[in-house]
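User: I'll paste a sequence; please echo it back and then give the predicted structure.

Assistant: Echoing your sequence first, then the prediction.
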Amino acid sequence: MKKNIKKGDIIKIVILALIIIWIIIFFIDYFRARQSKTPIFCISEQTKEYDDGTVYSCTGLGYKMYKYDRSSIDASVEFGPFFIQERTE
């Protein structure tokens, strides 16, 4: 006898699977950013040129990463939520 699977159960499983996949993607890119490597899962990438160097930015699924190669900024890599702003000083 087959068990009757409800539509609500399928939706819960799909949502849970998507959350787990997002967490895996987030941590892969986070640990790559900590090692000063470029993220794998970028939605958009951009490199800005300045007088004293460049800034590479990557926007992922709910997060941003900035890689600074500028003499006026001490930080080399910054990783955070999608609303963080690029440092200018």
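Residues 7-81 form one domain. Strands lie at 44-50, 53-59, 63-70, 77-81.
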